[in-house]
Amino acid sequence: MTELFIRLMRKPQGFVGIVLLALIAAACLFGPALAPYAPEKIDFLGRFRAPGWQNWLGADQFGRDILSRLMVGARSTVPLAFIATFVGSAAGATIGVGSAYLGGRTDEAIMRTIDAVMAIPGLLMALLLVSTLGNGAGNAVIAIAVAFAPGMARVTRSAALNVRNQDYVKAAIARGEGAPWIIFREMLPNVMAPIVIESTIRVSFAVMLFATLSFLGVGAQPPASEWGLMVADARQHMHQAPWGLIAPSAAIALTAIAFNLVGDGLRDALNPKDER
Amino acid sequence: MLSVTRRLFLAGTAISLAGLPRIALAEAPKRGGVLRMSVDQAASVIHPMLARVNPEYLVTELLYSNLTRLKPDMTVEPDLAMSWEPNATLTEWTFKLRPGVTFHDGSPLTADDVVATINAILDPKTASPGRTNVGPIKEVAAVDPLTVKFTLAGAYADLPVALTYLNARIVPAKVIAGDLASLSTTANGTGPFKLASYEPDRRIVVERNPAYYDPARPYLDRIELLVYPDRTAEASAMISGEIDLLLTTAPGEYERLAKADGVKALRTPSGQFLNINLGCDQKPFNDVRVRQALALVVDREATVGFVAGGYGTPGNDTPLSSAYHFYKNIPLKKPDIATAKKLLADAGYPNGIDLTLVASDRPSTRTQLGVAVREMAAAAGFRINVQTMPHATYLDQVWKKGNFYVGFYNMQPTADAVFKLLYTSDAAWNETHWNNADFDAVINAARVETDEAKRTALYAKAQDMMNAEVPSVISAFFDLLAAQRSYVEGYALHPRGSVFRLDMASLGAGAPKRA
Amino acid sequence: MSLAWFARRLMLMVYTVIVVSMLVFAITQILPADAAQSLLGENATPEVLAALRTRLGLGDPAWLQYGRWARHVFTGDFGISMRTSLPVGPEMLAALSRSLLLAVSAILVTLAIAVPLGVVAALRQGRLTDTGVSLIAYLGVSLPEFVTATLLALLLADTWHWLPATGYVSPLEDFGDGIRHLALPVLTVSLILVAHVMRMMRSETLDVLKSDYIRAARLKGLPERTVVFRHALRNALLPVVTIIALDVGYLLGGIIVIEEIFAIPGIGRALMVAITTRDLPSIQAGALIMAATYAVTNTLADMAYAFLDPRIRYD
């Protein structure tokens, strides 16, 4: 693991990515403690205040400090995107590996069905699910997880198919090991690398999908300081107070970039022979 | 005793005898041109009896006519009815129709059409919102082809106003007898425009009705209605000249529009309001002290700032704003946290109280009010959790059932209308369940009172009662905001919010030539 | 490609469409806020609501409702919209045509920009151009569509007044105006697609440039231009075709946001409205159409793939 980390840090993109991630993690952990103001404190007189010494990044339409909302909002935005991706990946990985193990007709049937489900665009699937389950951040997480699962299943299955044909798996089957044992002890660990890479990149999609759902009004609800919701609100006042739009957008972009960079970096670090 | 009323109604007749409503303009409006108008949601329903939202009221107003119409000062003028007269006890009203009016298909308008329309609206099977809003009509009959007699269930002074209701547009009797549902996709009315094309999510086009009963109107050749779901983009379209008139806009965009070249921003105070409905028949709001405590934490002027962007007037827990005729100017309640805390303690909540406030997501100002009230009320010990939900779910699960939710209402044509809609025990939408018999008595007395001074006193008492007992917290009234290009003439915002009178609009100098 | 291959693809498409329709139907069944209440609103008495529910068949068991719907779709009848009382089929197909116009234009613009950029970045790997191009690519995929759309509209429409901010004018009615109105939405979608495609193009070109036969071609003394255009490009384009096919899925989804902001009455908007108003027939029809479009595009992509690389055999 440490060796992996060192290899990751050696590349410029890995390095930048890790640094950004560390910043974001810090915001998630210490944000509320370090924020200068309470994120929901309304200051009627300070509405739309421009960035200055009082509000470093300015104030929104309720006079709430944008910097504080960003710092506290990290907790609403990033971990939720993380969880959604994790759950989606776990579900997808299980299906993908299981399907690869079962092989033959079953594998094909499962994959064709997965392909069919993927014909529904991710955003549409998330929208449908959120309408069914109800608005709110929690349901948005479930919706995103379900929307991601088929894609992850596909990726995992290709990797797993590779692994299945390896000797150690054939040996395990010959030994008479049970299916769950083979899947979880032999195949899954070796499939981890592509799963981790794909998941890391997907977290950035989850962040953006979350923000889009909030924009459409079905994700996080006011007065949460979720970044996507901040952008959606700020859009309505963007001609009066453009800083309200730029700060959370930049935060979303940086987070997405961070995960993208780390994902790319991981891909390079885990496949050292591919020089790009 | 009836002299005041008689005079007012005779005045109504006089205008119609003089001919048709005159517009006081320096010069006659230019005839011709195409008006491009934008709305924020599709007019999914063009059935006049079933229309429910402003774009739909707009379309049905273009295609159909009522018996009477509301002027911008909230008084009534003739439309399809030329004159009207009540009997001595205000229980029977006779309306005389305008001769020579035809529907779009050429068939003549007669009293039978009016009778059939009113009956259809009153029929529960039609499920028309107008059913409880056109007044206490017991029976309607055709006396002769141009005269209609309404027999009411009780004395009612406001029937002409009630008949301006947005769903009380007159449709042909033969359509009602044949296939009423066909009005959802086709139109056959007496309005100033005819339906040219109907693609609800994209564009609705109406063209001048050459057989409209006033040959001078409408001035416009054609109106195109386009859907712009995003307010910001809509304002951009107005500024760049893509659209000539927009129905309604938000405070944030209003400021941008007011500064733009060639754009005239429109604003008028209205009786549209957000409130917080308190279920007065359940804990904790069955205790008037809790309600009064909540009323005392709200900074009303601040609420106007939050939810209306400053474009509004503060409310005093009564549904009447200064735009209403019988408004009483009660001194505005100021926030008083200490008294609020004491009231809560007296009511048995010395350590505060936990509540969940439901706000539907349409319009978004509901949530803004919820959030603002939450912050303000925290100081007195109210721990409020604001729960947003989709409008459809809200209608299904919370509206009229919940005991603590944010409501939103357009201005009604009369004080009686709004009290009877929301706050009497027999109200159509009795959301607060206040069920105050004394209040009911006052409203019922005012309804049949013809003496102006006495009526004013009664409505003043009603407002005092609501102000004191707070069945719902009403802290802000909205100004209506819209915008038009400078070359649009003859259009004014109507405080009712759902009356548009586009047959008076015309395009002046500088209007682009459109195909 | 044999007839058998086509037959298989067709069956797959049908299977996809069936799975999608069942899935969407199942989800809509669980939607809270019953359609009748949504339709009639605040003023319906319980009796009227009950009557409407019976008329719409909302009380029947799910499988019965689905069977009824499927039977009608088979004959081309997508039902009547619960919201507007207009037939769903024609409305949805008209909306689809507008979305397709946007999507196809965006793909063409993307190819025109991303392919050259990707190749240039590969040829100048490690240098400033490469880094600059990569940076823009990263930004393109790191901002949600509604942010990109907002920023582009703010810049190009509101500030510089180059393009109209919103609205849709049918090119059939007024070609010039129609194109002007499409420009901003197409640009927004392209920006994101360009980011994807360019990165793929770049890495594929890099791969191909290092391959043996390219080295052989160079050693043969062929001019660099011939090497790049005739040999490298053709092979690098292959995965790009796959990427575009996958991106159609993203396009169909992301288009919801674009159409919302730019007021384009396309299928994304139609679905959005259908979902918020619980207009079940429209939701089902819209999802079906999207799935069918996705399936058809994938098949076309596979055909293009086979065309570009004759080594690929389909049986």
Automatic annotation (TrEMBL), chain B:
Keyword annotations from UniProtKB, A to Z: Signal, Transport
InterPro entries, alphabetized: Peptide/Ni-bd, SBP_5, SBP_5_dom
Gene3D superfamilies: Dipeptide-binding Protein, Domain 3, Periplasmic binding protein-like II
Domain Solute-binding protein family residues, every copy: 75-419
One Pfam family from the record: SBP_bac_5
Main location: periplasm
GO biological process: peptide transport
UniProt GO molecular function: peptide transmembrane transporter activity
Locations listed in the record: Periplasm
Keyword Signal: yes
GO cellular component: ATP-binding cassette (ABC) transporter complex; outer membrane-bounded periplasmic space
Keyword Transmembrane tagged: no
Family to which the UniProt record says this protein belongs: Belongs to the bacterial solute-binding protein 5 family.
Family matches, as PANTHER family: OLIGOPEPTIDE-BINDING PROTEIN APPA (PTHR30290:SF9), PERIPLASMIC BINDING COMPONENT OF ABC TRANSPORTER (PTHR30290)
Protein name: ABC transporter substrate-binding protein
Automatic annotation (TrEMBL), chain C:
A cellular-component GO term for this protein: plasma membrane
Membrane topology classification: Multi-pass membrane protein
Main location: membrane
Keywords, ordered alphabetically: Cell membrane, Membrane, Transmembrane, Transmembrane helix, Transport
Boundaries of every ABC transmembrane type-1 domain copy: 96-301
Transmembrane segments: 12-31, 100-123, 135-162, 182-201, 236-263, 283-308
Subcellular location per the Swiss-Prot or TrEMBL entry: Cell membrane
Coiled-coil blocks: none
Pfam families reported for this sequence: BPD_transp_1, BPD_transp_1_N
BP-aspect Gene Ontology terms: transmembrane transport
Superkingdom of origin organism: Bacteria
Record-stated family: Belongs to the binding-protein-dependent transport system permease family.
The protein, known as: ABC transporter permease
